[in-house]
Amino acid sequence: MLGFGVVAMRVVSAGDSSMNSQVTGLRVASIVFAIMAGAQLCRLIIRPEILVADHVMPLWPSMIAAPVLAALSFWMWKLSMRS
Description:
elongated, mainly alpha, 83 residues, 2 strands
C-alpha cells in the first residue's frame, strides 16, 4: 500500500489580507531565480562540458548569469517583505 501525505488547505476569502497574490508571486519568482542562480553556480564549480550543435558552451555566460540571477532573487524577496 502506498502512503500519501495529507495536505491541509485553508480556504481564503477575497478580503483576507494574509494571502496576497502579489507577495506570493514575488516569493515564487524569488525562489525560481535562486534555483537558477544555484544551477549556474553548480555549473561553474562542476564545469561540465555542454555541447550545443557540436560546439562547447563556454563558462563565461554562467559567470554573468549567476550574480544577475542572485541579485534578482534578492530584490524580489526584499520586495515581497515590503508588501
